[in-house]
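Reading group handout, session on sequence-to-structure problems. Before we discuss, look at one worked example. The prompt was deliberately terse, the way you'd type it at a terminal:

> structure DNA polymerase beta

The input record follows.
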Amino acid sequence: MDKNQVTNLMEEIAVLLALKEGSNTFEIRAYENAARALGSLEGDLATLVREGKLKGTPGLGPTIIKRIEEAFETEHIQFYDELVANTPQVKLDMKRIPGVGPKRINTIYQQLHVNSLAELEQACKDDRVAHLPGFGKKTQEKILQGLSFLSQHADRYLYDVAEAEAARMREALAAQPGVVRLQVAGSLRRRRETVKDIDMVLSVDDHASSDVRRAIMEFFTSQPSVKAITGQGETKSSVILSSGIAMDLRLVGDSQFPYTLHHFTGSREHHIPLRRRAQSMGMTINDYGLFKVEDGQETLIPCKTEEDIYQALKMDYVEPELREDTGEIDAAANHKLPRLVQESDLKGVLHAHSTWSDGQNTIREMAEACMARGYSYLGLTDHSRAASYAGGLNPDALKRQAEEIDQLNQEFGDRFHILKGTECDILRDGSMDFDDEVLATLDFVVASIHSNFNLSQEEQTQRLLRAIANPYVDIIGHSTGRILLGRPGYPVDMDQVIEAAAEHGTCIEINAHPSRLDLDWRYLRKARDKGIKIPIDPDAHALAGIDDMRYGIGIARKGWLRAQDVLNTLDFEALMAFFHVKRSKK
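And the output record:
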């Protein structure tokens, strides 16, 4: 268990309580508050639990603290398990439909008596959902769209969820006797934004006994996170984890490890042209090895690492993130692969929120957390007034916030810098929520869409184009508005957006929150080649959110970005000069 998992459990308990008939509003609110409290808690939660230091933490009462302790002691919370067991399955399924909350789920269940998503879909098609109190035709249509979206993304999981599961299993397996090498493979290693399952490759000594292999596989299949075993042998075992994710463990002798790791890292699209290259050189490659073929006979080419495999094929090493058949084979063969950006290249954080709007921590707390992580600046971007649901600031509040920032900057001196910014709403017509006179007082501006998602592609594109052309807009935030596995992005012609951003010198962020990862990596290389600077932004609403930068790095690497392509690899002085030059050009 880690802090994110326990926080998610608190949020889930609140939702499950809301789905329960006759539930207590105060109890629901207590778990919602607990989730917020944990999200803003600094430090290792496991250590705080072990040392008994949670008592007195605002938002965490005695009962909730006991349940947090139970989570760390037993890897689950019995109260949560009971709520899941006592909640009708169709309610749990409806919970996954974008935009359908507990209140509407309860109404549908109580009045239509549906027992499956298929029955709900039919009820929508029969026009019965539209006639429920508080629903209507538009809500019915959105539910149908949500059901379609769910079916398209069935059995997929966010990267961070799968990564956390894999990390726990890897840590447990790494300590087992006989393990030589161990690595996550598959789409998770390639840093895809969502994954279907987890692949892991483990090696033992080539001469290891069957007893060693069986012991490792038995240990794997008996882990607390394993809900079901779907296959078990000496070379491969398959399980379903408690999160629902399927996981395969492949066990090989160490001499076979690099070939097996490479094969099961994928992608299939990468392997097809790579095999063609091997064949053109009189070789063949599979999960058992790289072989020289002469007179119908195959001779193994010894490789200790994946790097050796690519070298034998007269190529530069292709990082896992690039193995998607987007030109990496030719680039590696011609020694033209980029040096990909790394997390250590980042100098500061842009796009973060504080208690001035909907953040959970003060400006000082956010700044100190950034300093603790080695960053030298924080670009604060609390919401503008149109985002009233998020405590958006009016111009007077923005001025008062600026005064607080000035005081903190004076205190921090050259150690750390806070930039005055805003996440300014892009209104329906593409104008800004603040006028230019207000925006001109800020160091930089992130402009984002938070409303009117149902406009046509032409309207939505023109809306973004007008924002990009505004002289005070420096960065476009989460440019498609997508929530991975939650809702599709609004329709927009991203090619036009990239062209306009390049023309006006406007940046487009990678929103690093694992539920967004927006701009999509498939557009990044084009944006890079157009000269657009791309900040990696956590969109942090709590201290823990700052650490989401690492997910943005994965997407940046998939999009072929180098350090010089990423805005916040600039130091503070260079960053301020960039914003100054951009505005002076206007």
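Points for discussion. First: The mean pLDDT is 94. Second: The chain has 24 helices and 19 strands.
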